[in-house]
TrEMBL record, chain A:
InterPro entries for this protein: CoA_trans_fam_I (IPR004165), NagB/RpiA_transferase-like (IPR037171)
Protein name per the record: Glutaconate CoA-transferase subunit A
EC identifiers of the protein: 2.8.3.12
GO molecular-function terms, A-Z: glutaconate CoA-transferase activity
Protein family membership: Belongs to the 3-oxoacid CoA-transferase subunit B family.
Pfam families: CoA_trans
UniProt xrefs under PANTHER family: ACETATE COA-TRANSFERASE YDIF, CHOLESTEROL RING-CLEAVING HYDROLASE IPDB SUBUNIT
Gene3D superfamilies: 3.30.30.40, Glutaconate Coenzyme A-transferase
Keyword tags: Transferase
TrEMBL record, chain B:
EC number: 2.8.3.12
Keyword Transferase: yes
Sequence similarity: Belongs to the 3-oxoacid CoA-transferase subunit B family.
Protein name, UniProt field: Glutaconate CoA-transferase subunit B
Keywords associated with the record: Transferase
Enzyme class: transferase
Keyword Transferase among record annotations: yes
Pfam family, one: CoA_trans
Amino acid sequence: MAKDRVLPLPEAIASLVRDGDTIALEGFSHLIPFAAGHEIIRQQRRGLTFCRMTPDLIADMMIAAGCVDRLVCSFFASGSAGSLYEIRRRLEDHDPAPLAVEEYSHHAMVLRYHAGASRLPFIPIRSFAGSDLPKVNPDIRLVDDPYGDGTTYVVPPLNPDVTIIHAQRADRRGNAQIWGITGVQQEAVYAAERVIVTVEEIVDDEVIRSDPNRTLIPAHAVDAVCVVPRGAHPSYVQGSYDRDNAFYRMWPKMAKDPQRLREWLEEHIHGTADHEEYLAAIGEEQLDSLRVASKPSQPVDYGRRLLAAANEGEA
Amino acid sequence: MTTSPDYSQTELIVCAASKMLADKRTVFAGIGLPTLAVDLAHRTLNRDIELIYESGVAGAHPEAMAEGIADSVVVSGSESVVSMQALFGYVLQGGNVDVGFLGAAQIDRHGSLNTTVIGEWEKPTVRLPGSGGAADIMANSGEIFVIIRRHDPASFPAEVDFITSASPVAAAQSGDGIQPQGHGVSVVITPLGVLQRADRFGELVLTHTHPGVTVDQVKEATGWDLQVADEVRSTMEPTVEEVRLLRDEIDTVRLYLR
């Protein structure tokens, strides 16, 4: 029997995420691993370096909860929903404490994960000429092009201690399949020392093997698979449930008041034992409003050798 | 073509942007006014225009008005979804984007954009969203269109507080020895008029004022001595048909038109 990597989420966080770790929680608006972030808050990890292209609400939550000392990212707002006020308070007023920031562009973050996954010493990028970003981030460096007369900016690899992502489905070994916006998850996973994949459901091996191109994360890259239905709420899972736009619109209004933000964390995260209780606190009515109608893909045909098919017919 | 009797400022800006997309092929844009402009251009002037989202989606056919570039409705039924590595590396840095749309809190005379901070980076007065993909889009798109919803000396200062996305002029002045692949900002549409940059190393020039706006008004609202075209035209007003398309077919729920 091949290795079974299924673990309850609290156990996976307890054994794989340590104080002081550099952690990446990726997923570009889609499949943000909120349930895992919430569990890190519950287990009160401290001193984390938090990496995410677009920090989103999960960063506001984890920073407010005191888990994060350093933020590595390329965006500081919540897409269409506006400001992330905990981050703004930290940076504008050092309230309640300053926050160290390493700031990049989106492409630079993508390339940093790619360089990390490929164990490269650095990687060139055609952005940043004339920009002030290299002035505030000494890790964006100008070097001579070893093959030509010119120069190029380079960025360093990013190798998290732990990367956590959310996926639609996986088998028990950890072969994880993702469809819809796939973002930077594959690069972030291979860049990391330890990897946790939370999934909407565990499926039989045959389901995974019926469409191997859909496996973005092969099992050999995974340390733990955790079954967490609705584990991306309030973000979304293509084909399963939609983004909770009401929640996203509510967040900046609430988080603008640090007291209310902390009360929300107390009630919805510290006050709930696990993700199931969190969902109960969000409420069935709100979750029900996020249902989507079905729109399946046409299956592709991978084919098989005629001989193998014939032998099976005789047996 | 009959002029619409009751168009809004938003509709005027969207229609102005749309007309400038008549001969463009691939456009990299966020959701909002740029998307409306591309959609309108597609229906009126340019059947071949193609919209690419930062989320990796190209050829979207959304069944409902999208709330953001990564909304599930832009994915369902779209022609392709690629990874971030393919999107920023091959599509954008590979030189496949004709026009990138960007917004900004501040813009200077050469089209350098600030989306990072007001004040000092170390302890800003206002922390803005940052680059996202903007610095990459500026460096690698054929040209950049900017829609900016304020036109005053604070938004159009002589010097921006922080250069997030640099103009070719700022790139040359920095001494880095690297030039962006494209032209930088070519068009800026504001609530007062249209500024254009024809010369890659030149300054923004006022080419159009919106109906009812004078050249002096625009100059006063700009934080440097704004160059003015020999012949400043009046921005073309939206037609009845353009406004009908925008309201009845493109943004039926008035998510962005307002």
